Protein 1
Amino acid sequence: MSIRKFLYILPFMILLATFAYYPLYGWVYAFFDYTPPIPLSKSPFVGLKWFHSLVENQVKIDQLLQVIKNTFGMSGLLLLFSWLPMIFAIFLNEIKAVRFRKFVQTVTTLPNFISWVLVYSLAFSMFSSEGIVNGLLKQWGFIDSPVLFLQDSDHVWLTMWMWATWKTLGWSAILYIAAITGIDDSLYEAARVDGATRMQSIRHVTLPSLLPTYFVLLMLQLASFLNNGLEQYFVFQNSFNKDTIQVLDLYVYNLAMGGGSYSVSVAISMLKSLISVVLLFSINGLSKLVRGESIV
Amino acid sequence: MSDKTSLVPSENVRSGNPLQPVKVRASTIDNMISVLIYALFALFALICVYPFYSILINTISANDLSARGDVIFFPQKIHFQNYFDVFKIPGLWHAAMISLGRTLIGTTLTVGASAFLGYMFTQEDMWRRRFWYRFTIITMYFNAGIIPWYLTMRSLHLTNNFLAYILPTIVAPFFIILVKTFVESTPKELQQSASIDGAGTMTIFFKIMLPICKPILATVAIFSAVDQWNAFQDTLLLVTDSKLYSLQFILYNYINQASSLSTMVNLQNAGSTAMASLATKQTTTSIRMTVTIIVVAPILLIYPLFQRFL
């Protein structure tokens, strides 16, 4: 056993401990009545008060329920359509014009590499009241006054799903494209000898070969069901769609940074992390049970 | 099968040779399906690329036309004044330097650390190697949440501090997995023979592993550079000092308050006599779109490099 080799990596482990593990200590804020700038050491210990306060009256329950509904709605939509990249890869592979296929693959991966701020900027240029889409609609005489796409609060889940799909579809397909490359050609030859049509060989050869990859990704996605991330919803939020766009991550941010309620927001974020870990490990266990291999 | 199910893109991702198409006699239904597939992919490709194209042609068209929404397919009355003008906005140059600085420094350190840790985690005789490897990887799946993270950063005095952009990104578990997988695929004899010749851990790392790992390190470098360039959340949470604003953050602000900026640029230009024709007068739209193109440009420039990995 070489301790010296460990000493080489020690500085990096310290960095990791500082930025990934030490923040866990921040969870104690959930048990104190903390209002900056009074330091934690002078804040009173309140026990589970903040956890109780989440459900103490109907207004707060309703608010939290709405946030949870949004989180489930938007994660659920992504989960519901999680097979899209696989289908994308399968049909892209059916395209025989190599140049066209390369072009499609290149162009559709591009949005994955820009930030959500840039996505928002594109969305703003396209869909704001003075954007290109409204300009076109007006020119063609469909509308008199601009349609306020970005302020719409009724279809936020759908539009957020659409932007996420626009951004990641092409890139997510790459994993499947790689997997298709790995499928043994003799399987297709056998299918052809048996008289399979193109759709039949997709159904009986390509699809079954991709399912293992799909299930692993699906389980990971399930495990991070509560973690929608902050950026996408933060940039797209405005005072009109606030109620339907707030997912847990954004809600926690708005509570703390907007309202200064650090303790409550830490309490929520703590619950969220704990549930996520339980989810991750149960799905990992399920995967071990069903497929014989773990995903973590 | 096992590497197909792995989440780590291995060499497979880079080889990208599409499967040889199976020759089946095309029936009418097959042909119709083909046409449909082509049409759908063409449409999606168009949807992916048009927003970029549209903004680009709007920034180089006459600003009065673009403000009216007349520039849709082709640029009209091409001029490049917008690009000179936006750099007159106070703070934009500085933000560009901050973005560039964090990208260069951050990427260098992340690549170095990923290479070193990826290599070290293959050293079987390291004390408690498996534990430390798990200690690293598990952070991909689990974190305390953004507010505890923010409170930590504040207590470490990393708010309004350039180091906040760099330090947390140095140890990147995903990149470490990539490098480790790559190192494991190289022949063990290389390290063994070097070690018999008297080379120590560090010598083997610098003289042998680093040169061998170049392809995977290039991948890590590009990914990490894009991450750094695109980072927005850390500025949002940790920075209030405008000297540390990144381009992404500035762009976000501009989308929300571009009208005052266009007035400012127009006022600055009003002094010089050559200005103020309608075609080059700054509008809310022109400022916002031009800054968008400036922020997206480095990604578009680095993008051809990605092609090698597709």
Note: The radius of gyration of chain A is 24 Å.
Protein 2
Amino acid sequence: MEVKVEGGDDFANTTFAKISQATFRDLGVRASIDNIYIYIDPTAHFFVISVKIGRVASPVTVRDMTQREPDRLKITDERYAPNLLSVLWDTYGARIKQVSRLEIEFELDEKERVAMMDLLVYDPKDDLITRILDGIDRILPEGARVRCPIPLPDRVTLLASEDPIGPEWEAKAEEIVRKGSTD
Amino acid sequence: MYEIMMFEGGVYKFNELKELVEDIGGFILQESVMQTETMLHLAFPEEEERIIRDKIKDLGGKFRKLPLGGSEIIIVAPSLGKHHAVDPICDISEYLRRKGAITNMMGLARGVGKRIAQMTVEEREVLEEFDAAVFVFGNIKECIEEKSGLCESLDVPHIIVGGPQGLALEHYVAGVGRRTDRMRRTHEIDTLERVAAEVEEVIEERRLEIEEDPLAASPLFIKEMIEMVIPQKAGEEFSLIIQIDGLRLNIEEEDVPMIKDVSVGKKKLSEICELEKSRYKGYLLKIKTEAEVGSIY
């Protein structure tokens, strides 16, 4: 994930780059982001952040995160355990029982068992934008509460300020991102 | 003037050190005994430092000066949101505690932004109860310059901490901007040391100011007199916090008349101090000057 910050002094630029790296790492979306472009205008108090989404991890199925035994499943990746239980209960109801922290017992016929292994547990695409927006919110200065999304292809771009944002700034932000992110 | 130091050592004969401190007119501010390890915060007249150092040498303990001992400091962030808290205000707070200060933290209600940053009257009153305030502002030079205006009218010594270098502000320390991790590298510890040095400077200025018009009694002495009447409750820590020109008393309302009746020399505490409810916590006891109330003996 590349981060490019422009507009501020050296200290501000370096710090915003570090904060961006740390924030997206904490949110676990670093691998899904190609690059980030941040533009700071401290005098006018306008901030532009633009995130280019890259390759998103593949969806997780029951097969990817469990080990199947004749009448039970053993969870091998506990991160997705709540999603797994919710999916199985929604699909098979009371025939699914969680017998211990990492063990799930089922009463299913063979056809259902095969189908169960291909059920979708978690698709990173589902909440990617939410997590990126959460990251953007953590990076942008807290005082810049007036936000305006800038529609650009393949990018999540947000313009933020403490003052009302007019159309001239929207146009300027679009231009800045187009120029800055391609340089 | 009193010197405040910390002693760390074994329990062997450490009572002798306590007795010596009391004999030379000093005070034990804090005492903690953990199995065979002891830690004491001592305050004693600065001209007696040699005797104390010799005794500590005899006992084989370690000692170090606490330049901020006997002061209560507040660390102020523009908000308590994840942008400004927890790092680096906790790091600064912890470092100042190591230097002997009692520290508190506060997030302003509307301190964020540049043009929109504000400080309410209540916040100002709370800040003015402390011996010094440390404002931790962010990364952007223009915002720090604008926000420094909030602190100008404050009637309390304060320093400003921020990221960029070269700001023409009084008592400004650069190198601490917004952070997402702890300050633990050598150059970061050096920055914290610079923050502590700047706080020491403003505290020292305040102490010298007080020395020109001395207080009727030392806060350390008054603390001891109060503790004779209202002993510290079990499990309670820091019920009486020493400030440069008084004390913060974390006491119940029913204890107030008793406190006012405490004898200090020939006078009652109510004659030499002003006691009022704090906007922050407990009661504030401000000691009047000797010129105002005369000698207590």
Note: The longest helix of chain B spans residues 186-212.
Protein 3
Amino acid sequence: MTRLSRRAFSQLGLGAALVSTASGRAFAQAPELVIGAANPMSGVFAFAGVEGFEGGRDHFEFVNRNGGVGGRRIRYVNEDSGYRVDNAVAIFTRITSQHQTPVFFGDSTGFQKAINPELNRRGSTVMAGASFASEIDNPQAFPNQWIPGPNYSDQFRVLLRYIASQKRGASVVFVYSDTEFGRDPIAAGEAEARRLELNVVEKIVTQPGSVDVSGDVLKIRRRNPDYVIFHGYVLQPIPEFMAQARQAGMTSRFMGTFYSTDTVLMNRAGAAADGYMGVSCYNFDANAQGAQVEAIRAANVGKTRTHAYYQGWTNAMLAVEVLRRTLAANEELNAVNMMKHARGLKNYDTGGVFGVPISMVNNSFPHGRVYQYSAADKVLKPASDWITISASA
Amino acid sequence: MRVATAKESYAADQGLFKTDTQKVWFGLLLAALVLFPLHGSNYWMFLAVLVMINIISTTGLNILTGYTGQVSLGHAAFMAVGAYTVAFFDGRFDTPVLLNLVLAGAVAAFIGYLVGLPSLRIKGLYLAIATLAASVILGFIFLNWTPVTGGLRGLNVPTATIAGIELATPDRLYWLVMPITVIMVLAAKNLFRTRVGRAFIAIRDRDISAEIIGISLLKYKLTSFAISSFYAGVAGGLWAYLFRVVTPESFPALASIFFLAAVIVGGAGTIIGGIFGAVFMTLIPEFLKLAATAVVPWFPDAPIYLAPVRAIIFGLLIIGFLIFEPMGLAEMWRRTRRYFALWPFRT
């Protein structure tokens, strides 16, 4: 048996100490960056909540695989809100009391409004989320939040400008749900229509989940407008409206805003949705180029993702960029610093997620494009170029 | 086995606390409520405040449904009335917090009084639908009386401030909500030691018999509605101070079902049942959520798959209670107490 001399023992000890020091250095990591989220994983908006969660999760995995943010990994802490304001507030309170949370994703306009005073009071967390409410697009009232695209009023403006470019003095009917979500852009839409000299000939308010639309279709038929714009619905009752209108021989073009413009939803509606036009801020071009869209494709081989997924991805991408810029400037991760860098996003290249470089105006990114659904190909095809709404609008 | 609980007078028999043990436990509960903020994190303080608000509201519904036998599906709308009242007075006139809460209760009580009018002619399911219809009308008012309610956008509520101290965080708001909860629960308990409370119980048990023995159904049914709505209004006012925004969507009809379920699960017709029900209905989904969150490190997609499972488990628990303990948590509590009181004898 080999005896261990004192010198050999000392050398071994020294070696072990060096190895342990070296490995200690190797394992010493910068603290994680925690991003919290309250997504509706159950309830009526679960379909969007799950997609939104997965969009954020996939982006953070992509970022972590590529070295994190300034060498720090992102930890995404998400909980199911059930699309209830009190649940979402509880989740916000719990996650922010357990972790330092520079960015939090909210699930609804109601929650983002409810938590806003608390967000302003804390000054340590910025928020983005699922809401495109025009009210949130106000830096004075909501200084610590952003919207991952154009607000609902700007989405309406994109649609109306497209209509004006197609037919001068076209007649338009607005159909919207009797909810806060539904009524949001109507006044701004009417003002924009007047400016563009379009004729809003009828406004129809329905229950959000309305199924018996025959009376409303009759109203539209009487007016026989060139365009009908839906807002405040996820999908229903749009296909029913379109099917009945077609049966009645109407030739109106049907349009909608963000949450009703989606390949997956249109595919479910089938032939009735053929020709439907909708506004989106995301790039559905299958040949789009850019690091981010390629990462989305790599993470979703064989899957078709909904709008909400892109929204989750975009929120995560913007959050990472804001964190990266704040850390690069060697500044504290507080709301003032982070929002300063968020508002500094001018002509920002989204790696193909938006079709144009984006700039924050107020709290939103007012860029959109009109797509048209082709039932034969089961895809949304671009119908317009990218349209940017200026701050003065 | 507990001995010497015999009472020598009606007053002693009707006492708020019938035994010294009860007094000791109540003292310990008060001490725990006072000491809780020393150890509770911000999140636990938030949950505590939410639970107490729900206890006030559930107790109010219990007075109406559990004790007077009147079904209401408009309770959440009365909470909304309270929340809007607080938002309106505090936001517009900067009136003191306690006055706002009293006003919230008073306005809700008045509305509740009006909504209770049909209860003289109809009961059971018919009354439930009438109260639901009243909540729809109130919802319409919240949505369209824009100068007062802010319409669709709702109203933001200033931070509750008492003696210059801003109760902006749950740990501070706790000191407003906790005493109010204790006072209101004790007041409800006390109510059923009075003539009014006994009249409520008589109406619940058999309204025709109650009328025959001289109880005015008109007076007491409406009083019950008013008191119940007062509780809902105060709870709604506190809710407004907790969340600091009130919109027409803040109190959906589903919230009324929530409170009705809390009364049934806790045990209708007992004050402790209302407390148990509110705690159960508020905290069980939260604990199920914690359990779902705990497995995330090993199962990253857990939030997606466990969310519906959580809802199913919660639903099954409620169904389980209805099947195996229709008298609610209060009955389980009573059995537990009886076991210790009679030990070593069997209950």
Note: The first strand of chain B starts at residue 155 and ends at 156.
Protein 4
Amino acid sequence: MNAPLPDLSQCAQEPIRVPGAIQPLGWMSVIDGNGQLVAWSANWPDRDRAALAAGLARGALDRLDSTGEGPAALGHIELGDQALDVLAHRSGDLYVLEFEPHVREAGIQAPIYSLARHFLPQMQRAESLQDILELAAVEMKRLSGFGRTLVYRFDDEGHGEVLAEAADRGYESYADHRFPAADVPTQARELYRVNHIRLIADATYEPVPLLGAPGWDPSSLDLTYSTLRSVSPVHLEYMRNMGTLASMSVSIVVRNKLWGLISCHNHEPMRLPYQARAACEHLGRLLSLQVAAKEDNAEVATRLDLRHLTLQIVSHLADSDGTLQRLVAEPALLLRMARASGAAVVLNEQCWTCGETPEPSQIAALAKWIAGRNQDVWSTDRLVEEYPAAAPFVARGAGVLALSISQVHQHLVLWFRPELVETIRWAGDPRKEVDVDVGGRIHPRRSFASWQERVRGRSAPWTSSEVAATEELRHALIGIVLRRAEELAEVATELGRVNKELEAFSYTVSHDLRAPMRHIAGYVDLVQDMEGKTLSERSNRYLAHVKEAAAYAGHLVDALLDFSRMGRAALKRKPVNSLLLVQELVAEFTRQEPTRNFEWDISHDLPMLWADPFLLQVALRNLLANAVKYTRTRDVARIRVTAVTTADGDGLKVADNGVGFQQKYVSKLFGVFQRLHQAEDFEGTGIGLASVRRIVERHGGVVWAQGEPDQGAEFGFTLPRADVGPQPRPRQVKDQ
Amino acid sequence: MLKPILLVEDDKRDLELTLVALERSQLANEVIVVRDGAQALDYLLREGDFRGRDEGNPAVVLLDLKLPKVNGLEVLQKVRATPALRSTPVVMLTSSQEESDVVRSYELGVNAYVVKPVEFKQFVGAIADLGVFWAVLNEPPPGSLKASSRRYE
């Protein structure tokens, strides 16, 4: 609403339950439990007449006890030459007796019979609530004979919206119009809730005051359930302004709440006998039941549908790695669940979206603001009113429904609904037409001319079942997130345990396996030293094999230990000049094998790499050592080191003209203890390339190899750059 | 008089090889051999079986890390916590290359940490270097033990 509605709260102060007067449609006598007259309407000829009528009706009062609160028809009495219908109800300790001119019993002509016969079958056939409401409008008009019948519903703010109408020619149509909430003040609403029918037969009537026995104030009498109760003069003025001299309202009460009204208007005054009124009231009750049933059915269907969607979403999520951002991977389900056009998952600084949403930065700010409200579920269909920063994206996010998944972190799921620009037709401009006269009395608006309002900045409202379903989803999500956290903790614990075992294993290996190797090598050496000259040449050869084997086993143990340490030690990354590193290593290899003929081709543009210097050196040493080793059979060993740059990072490539390998074995190449050559041809423990891969992958990089038998081999790797992209994923966890 | 070398070694093969290595390094120092950490402490503190030994500390303690009863790190800790022994050189002589052991040893104030090489020639070389440095070149703190000829095994 763009303009505030006028304050009609004074109307709400009016004591409409105890007006101390009735409409001149009949007569009233009020008696106490002893049958003593305590009050009567001033339109009786005299007090005796009022007491006489009460006395005649008194015998039938026994029947009242079982008939609830509302007035019950107790038949009719003959009072002199007048026949009077009697309606009675209790008001505290008193009996309120109302008399109207008698209308002859109509038998099967009775309106209530025609209602049952005519309307019930139609209602049963009707499929939608709208159909039923339209039938009810027509039937009410038929039953009552009023010129126009409106069926309208109150919205959450109390505005009435006309949903069905039946009107004679000459009556203005109010179909699809709204009546501002102030038209029916709170206490009038409450009266409609408890007393389901009210007739004002003539808006120009003069109220008939109640007179009281000595010591008894008739204006204290609660006339809530009275048929004849006099109504507010403001309301009568409202009716006259509207050109309606007779009106009748029948309540539609659903689950004990005033859902709406069937409102009948007539240009001319209109009396309606009790039997017709009873049929109208009955129609209201039938309609109330149908509305409740249809709403219940729709609610159940909606809830089932939503629950089904919730289950699907949850099961999808549970099948995945269970992280919340997976929600947006099934946009159709997620959006349908809240009938939203966009949705977002916010996990602290990160944001994933699907459908039509505001920009991620706008979502992030909104999420922060919503998280500050500390509510599990928060929604609005008019975000801009509460959060002005939403103005730039109102077209995509006029309404928001948000779930907060964590108390600690800013983890939210948000749904967005677009702006609906709605044109509302009011029966009269609700902003105007309130007069307060010189005496301070309020006068209602005089114009009921159709007036249009455009409502902006709002989305379709979030229904209670949608909110309830998202709450359910929230619980399920929390369950999944918690379970995921537990699983992760379990994996971490398990990993920690495995790591500890591995450490213990390494420790044992280093102590207990190295020592015997050392002993074997040592004693063989001693024997050779002491007895070598007296032993046969063959014995000496055997001893040499024993020593070599022991030394090899010792190296293997050392290599294994190095390899395991490589996986465990923390990376200490810094920029490393790979050119310098390569040059130093090349110098070292050249020194170690002075007899060989190398042709080194080292590119001068080798990159700076973001790496742990020690581990990078180990990796490069292994690659170069391989090139040196497998070119041994060549007269000239040609080894070429060049730079590699890809989208993922920078690295090096080492190519040689050595013995190469068959490409089909490439996957085995980087495995621990994989060898592609006979041990006597090329020495080594088979762990070098596994170390290279482990080092490269710990840096989040990739390693590859290419080769052809006898045509040489090429090994390369790249490492991620320091300044780009996310940190490497912990891939190495897998092969630990 | 030369001060003795205290060798703490539980593995009899390692012991023999170490003694051969020390022999080959032609050090004149006597070598006192004990077989576990508790004995080493008794010797150093002149307690238990060693209550009656003459005063004075060894030129160097060659201490195996992994020992029965009281391990090398614990012996080292006790030595460094005892004022009379604090300045005695201690060399960890071990199979372990575990970083945590190295770090811990240095934290506790070890003078050197030597991983026994697998190959015997290198092993002999390492022991000889150690002996020469710690027993000959290194100027021992005052109050070091006079030579004696006893071996405890």
Note: The helical segments of chain B are 12-24, 37-45, 72-81, 99-107, 120-137.
